[in-house]
Write a structure and sequence with these properties.
The protein is an alpha+beta fold. Helices cover 38% and strands 22% of the residues. It contains 13 helices and 16 strands. α3 links the parallel β4 and β5. α1 packs parallel to α2, α6 packs parallel to α7 and α8 crosses α13. The longest helix has 28 residues. The termini are close together.
Amino acid sequence: MDLPQPLPSPAPAASASRATWLPTTNDGYREMLAAIGSATASIRFEIYIFKSGGPGDRFRDALIAAARRGVEVRVLLDGFGSAELVAGYWDGLVAAGGQAVLFNPGPLLRLPIRDHHKLVVVDQAIAFIGGFNIGPEYEGDGVSAGWRDLGLAIAGPAAATLAASFDAMWENRNLRRHRALRNLAAQWRHRRRQPAALQLMSMGPALGRNAFQELLLREVRHAREIRLIAAYFVPSLRLRRALRAVARRGGRVQIILPGKSDVPLVQAAGRSYYSRLLGAGVEIAEYTPQILHAKLAVIDDVVFAGSSNLDARSLRVNYEVMARVADPALAAEGRRIFEADWGRSRVIRLAEWRAQRGWTDRLYGLVARFCLVKIDLWFARNRLRALG
């Protein structure tokens, strides 16, 4: 089998589709469980990290109940991200007529190729995307408890497009052969078209540019105001230059990055970019109440949200799903979400930052960047070539 292929990206969604914010993990869990509880035909459930206990068990029980009432239930979990689940965890779902499988549960040499989607599609009528993994530590409002995360609920015909993305991943979950670049030309053709109000991007491992980054860059280069939240921030040179250019010409660029991170190496790499960004006039703050896991870009009246981080792995290797929504009302609400998080964050000042950074911190940041941008990508590319 081939690797799952990106949808012709960005895929324009029907104008009748609408997106609404899921501002916290609690909101996301509540709305997804409610949709699962009211499903009548089908549930497609695709999560990178799924853990037992607490919310995981509630989702499993809701999926079992749906299968028992005749709903087609398919669960697709990443073989690495969800590796902690014990054998037999989904036996109740299978007994009820549902299915649960792993994406790429292969050996260590296939480890780099991961399904990073967080996607739930119910009855092909409503879909949920964002950063939501499922497990006890993620549950909460992101302020007093749980990781800080957010997502979108997308209702209408666009849900069927996301269902097609799930189906492609499901059918090609065992990664027999690799042809991840075959849709690259189609992506370029679609990028040159006039963008629709709601566009969906399903990206896969490709050695070139991906649709999300190209659309993001296009918006950034013409922006007046940019607000980014990035859990993992190892941006490309083109994106760094574009952000600095906006700030230098008088635009406002604000970025919230993690003060607490579950991956210290990525945090160190991200911090290594602070001085040049701050020196150009970019504003940076670190979110401190809880671990930051959100992915958000509000650029003037355009919103980007979904599973993709602004790091080399998300932009070059992982399977990701993103939405671009041109909606002034949704963007205004996104700015309110951002401003609330900015108020809970520690603002980084250039002079203080330079004063507190010793040579060991700077060296660690450079080593972290080298590991993530060079070594990790080299290993991933090597594995992709080995698949054919």
